[in-house]
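Example 4.3 (complexes with small molecules)
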Amino acid sequence: MARKMSTRKRPRREDKPLHEINKIAYKVFDTKTLHVLVGLMNTRVFKSIDYPLASGKEAYVFRGTRADGTHVAIKVFKYETTAFRHAHEYLEGDPRFNAKRVRGRLRDFVRLWARKEFANLQACADEGVSVPQPIAHRDNVVVMEFLGERGVPYALLEDVVVANPRLLLSEIVAQAKLAWQAGIVHADLSSFNVIMRTSEGKEGKGAQTPVLIDWAQGVSVAHPRAREYLANDCHNVASFFKRLGLRVDESEIEKTITS
Ligand SMILES: Nc1ncnc2c1ncn2[C@@H]1O[C@H](COP(=O)(O)OP(=O)(O)OP(=O)(O)O)[C@@H](O)[C@H]1O
Ligand SMILES: [Mg+2]
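Answer. The structure with magnesium ion bound is encoded below.
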């Protein structure tokens, strides 16, 4: 005969969503991060964590599923990373964030870094820049729109065949210009941080539009080194298109963005 579990042994209500966190997440995350993820599940930001989309130097990105079956991207910044050694320069000098207060405390610093990504995404989305729509932020976790179709992520610019390089370059420059108008410089723009959103056409060939991702290191245009970071972004973008055979003038791109 099945025995009723004593209430003492029964999992607490707030621990229940832990069952929805898969084994990978259990192995990967520290207790603090697990609690943040459970908190986001309890507030119905997502219902489950599905599988890792990527594991970079500073963050893991997971696909998640919401109660209505749609997907989200969950970016979890690593507390144990060493990738933040140079990150202070992007925070100090940005009038929006008080980096001095967290100097030396890695945990606080990682949280601030996640908050910066969310704030940058919001500022860009408000201005109409092509970025993943920000959904939620808590501690070291940022939840945003999942860029993909039927649960499968779109490809990075780095990995696609570009049909019309000249057009695509002008589209990316237009997005960087919008971001500048929103008061933000990406500061790590490259073919690895652009995802190609593909809308399906009738014969399976869809139109592709660039979506700019990975905004944690983005700085305010008021940052003393903003112009330097912008010049570097223009250089990276220009190099990619030069490799595709285009003649590109970096300073021309920079002028277009800031004019
Ligand atoms: N919104 C999203 N939808 C779908 N996939 C995403 C999304 N955001 C990020 N990804 C995937 O996760 C990868 C890493 O994301 P991102 O560049 O933001 O993190 P990162 O920590 O800077 O990674 P890296 O160190 O590799 O640059 C991307 O290259 C992409 O494959
Ligand atoms: Mg990246």
